[in-house]
Each structure stands twice: as structure tokens, then as C-alpha cells.
Fold:
Amino acid sequence: MALAQSNAAAPAMAPAIAPAGAAMGILTALSLSHMCNDMVQSVAQAMYPTFRDLYGLSFLQLGLVTLAFQGTASILQPLVGYLTDRRPTPCLGRRASPGPIAGS
Structure:
């Protein structure tokens, strides 16, 4: 009986809810970074005729470039997602974001 009374006396913890503005800011940042990633991938493929003429690449070699490009993304994205789910690091995004942006 004393155990039940001590549990009843504990204050209820309210769940932490992010303000709607913060959630929209995060969603906007994620959407813009995903859009930039997709644009870089489409620009690289649009440059294939130029690469073919400039470097004398065959269609097989261009296909291998595509395979490496898409294969790397297909392997790394789930791996990074799995590792991020296992050990979240929210502040990493602020430190890692300038690198890809500067490289673009």
C-alpha cells in the first residue's frame, strides 16, 4: 500500500513537444538539402555527353561511372541511416553541412 501511495505522489512528466516553428524549420532544411542532393545527381548525369567528348569515354565507362555513383549512394545511405538511428548526434548536421555546400 505504501508503494502505491509513493507512485501516486510523483509528479507527472509532460512529454517534450517541439514548437511548430522549429519543426517546420527542420523539415525545410531537410527538404532543401535533399533537393540539392537530387540536383547534383541530375547535373552529373546531364554532363555525361560533355565527359564523353572531353575525356573520350565510352558508354560502358559512363555506365560504370553511374554504377559507382549510384551504388555508393545506395550502400552509404542505409548504412548512415542505421548508424544515426543507433546513435543520434543532432549537432553533427550543423558541423557537417558546410562541407557539401562548399564542394558544390
